[in-house]
Specification:
heterodimer, A: 229 residues, alpha/beta, seven-stranded parallel β-sheet, 9 helices, 8 strands, 37% helix, 21% strand, B: 113 residues, alpha+beta, three-stranded mixed β-sheet, three-stranded antiparallel β-sheet, 2 helices, 6 strands, elongated
Chain lengths: 229, 113
């Protein structure tokens, strides 16, 4: 064998991650778990929205939480204080969760006792978009103080998510934030995504978010009946 | 800095295909990366030297084919490049536009000896 040969590959660079993500998803489906991947830049309100969600839906759904952070267990402790099973993943510097990290954390949860698994990704507006975790839905939280131009500056994050929550709408007036401009940019990149403005502080708009989430959980349960026994 | 894990995945894909082809050495990787995939060429190159060291891909050249992000006007159908402060059709001025390309993120081919 001599000389240079060209070999066709045509394979997604993250195919290994995607395969593991598919395995995670199968595991969720087998246990009747509906999983969401919550992404945002630091300070947008991921933990606050998840706390609000646990408080509102904790009676009707059995909720579990996985929290990804570079260090500390601050957020997982906040979820555990609400009496939901919570696992912390410290990424040790990595800027995102990937399917392997999630796979490693799952044995710490009793999936048979969970209806809705909320995965809080590492706070970052660049990296997490590339890594499928195996969640059924991905949610991006933006917040008013970040500015209305983010869909134009960070387009990849707005691709592929199912819902876009705009948090901190209680301070809209103070930030000169043009909601229509923001929404147009996001919808150009991702037609058909659910756009859900909220304020975790005042509670405004949370009904819309909870209605969307309830609907997604219900649609999944009817589509993938929980195994008997 | 997610390029390190991405570059590791890239190496794994390349090695798997090279071994299947019974290669001795990988000399070049031809990548196709869309503008809507958040990857920085320079960072991948930097990580590449690190992760490929000691493998049959050490010293292989990385070739990046960049695919621009594309938007399409839902009114007149015109396609144009992603960018700018506002996503507006340059022909009809309509703001109802949708992204139609630039998500590519694949290893197209490798060159082996």
């Amino acid at each position: 064998m001599t000389g240079v040969r060209q070999v066709s590959v045509v394979e997604d660079i993250l195919s290994a991650n995607d395969q593991l993500a598919a395995a995670n998803r199968e595991r969720f489906d087998a246990s009747g778990v509906f999983a969401i991947n919550v992404m945002a830049s630091p300070g947008a309100g991921k933990t606050s929205l998840i706390e609000r969600t646990i408080q509102a839906l904790g009676e009707e759904l059995r909720i579990g939480a996985v929290d990804g952070d570079i260090a500390s267990t601050v957020d997982a402790d906040r979820f555990a204080a609400l009496n939901v099973p919570a696992v912390q993943i410290n990424t040790g510097g990595a800027c995102h969760l990937d399917a392997v990290m999630l796979q490693g954390a799952l044995p710490q949860l009793d999936l048979g006792e969970i209806d809705l698994l909320i995965i809080e990704n590492v706070g970052n507006l660049v990296c997490p978009a590339a890594f499928d975790l195996g969640a059924h839905r991905s949610v991006l939280i933006a917040s008013v103080p970040e500015g209305d131009d983010k869909p134009y500056k960070y387009p990849p994050m707005y691709r592929g998510v199912h819902a876009l929550v705009l948090n901190k709408i209680d301070v809209l007036a103070a930030f000169d934030f043009d909601i229509d401009y923001f929404r147009r940019g996001a919808e150009a990149l991702n037609p058909g995504l659910a756009f859900l403005p909220v304020s975790c502080k005042t509670g405004e708009g949370l009904d819309g978010w909870l209605t969307w989430l309830r609907g997604e959980v219900a649609a999944n349960v009817s589509g993938n009946p929980r195994p008997r026994g | 800095m997610h390029e390190l894990s991405i570059t590791q995945s890239l190496l794994d894909v390349a090695l798997r295909h090279a071994e299947k082809a019974e290669a001795q050495r990988i000399t070049r990787l031809n990548l196709v990366i869309g503008e809507l995939a958040s990857i920085v060429d320079e960072s991948v190159q930097f990580c590449w030297d690190l992760v490929s060291k000691g493998t049959m891909a050490e010293g292989a050249e990385l070739s990046f084919e960049r695919v621009p992000g594309r938007l399409r006007c839902t009114g007149c159908g015109r396609e144009f490049a992603l960018g700018g402060r506002e996503y507006v059709c340059p022909d009809c001025g309509q703001r109802q536009v949708v992204a139609v390309g630039g998500d590519d993120f694949r290893l197209e081919s490798i060159e082996i000896e």
